[in-house]
Amino acid sequence: ATSVAAATTAASNDDDGAAAASNNNNNNTPNPPTKRFTKVDKEKWSARIDDLRAFLSEHGHCLVPNVYPPNPRLARWVSCQRYHYKLYLMNDGKTSNLSQGRMRQLEGMGFVWDSQALKWEEKLRDLDEYKATHGNCSVPLRCRANSQLAVWVKTQRRQYKLFREGRRSAMTEGRIGVLELRGFVWAQRGKTPHAAVVGNKAPRPHNNVASAGSAAGRRGHQR
Question: Which of 75-84, 130-139, 186-195 has the lowest mean pLDDT?
Fold first, then answer.
């Protein structure tokens, strides 16, 4: 509660640009333009912060879903803050409605700017728990213990396939490396014989036609 209150005070000061200037003098980042918010804007901000604080108290985090029927206004507001945060990073806050004080206020509440990255890390921890129990990362498609993990594993395989094809994908070299270290299997069981692990060469497919022909030839010689 104390840290949230302190962040709220900093946000109030930063609305007039004072905290932002002093904070940036301690590093090499450029000073963002001064943010001056109207009384109405400040009232709206305070109202949404109260909503977010109530959500945090109920759920233990600030990951408000994009679709949140109990408070759709809060869901839209959270998405808007992430959008303006990206703008802030892209152009030093010139076209963003966020000030450093408001960012600190949200971060003091545990606000996550990149929700997708956090969710990926959470699923990775689930995968680690699965491996600790089963000794591998071969999560079945129908995993009753954790159906969401099964969906996530399937998604990683699909994204990896898109990545290898040079198409748009959420997969990255870094994520591939992280999964590779865990022995993640990219080919689903039953689709590719002896599914290959990232970093290892896939075994050469068995030529059933040639094998059948060789067997027939051997039978011919025996006759």
Answer: 186-195
Handedness of CA 117, 123, 129, 131 (dihedral sign): negative
Closest of 109, 38, 108, 47 to residue 73, by C-alpha: 47
Instruction: Evaluate whether 91 touches 9 at the Cβ level (below 8 Å).
Output: no
CA 123 – CA 130 distance, rounded (Å): 10
What are the backbone dihedrals phi and psi of residue 44, each rounded to the nearest 5 degrees, phi first? -65, -40
CA distance 65 to 164: 31
Residue 82 neighbours by CB under 8 Å, 6+ apart:
113, 114, 115
Q: Which long-range contacts (CB under 8 A, 24 or more apart) does 45-51 make?
A: 45/102, 48/73, 48/74, 48/77, 49/8, 49/105, 51/77
Q: What angle, rounded to 10 degrees, do the helices at 100-108 and 2-14 form?
A: 170
Could you read off the pLDDT of 49-79 as tens digits, one per residue? 999 999 999 988 898 988 899 999 999 999 9
- Give the tokens for residue 95: 């076209």
Q: Taking residues 104-127, report their average pLDDT.
A: 92
Q: Which amino acid is at 40?
A: V
Instruction: Tell me, rounded to whole angstroms, the distance of Cα 160 from its chain centroid.
Output: 15
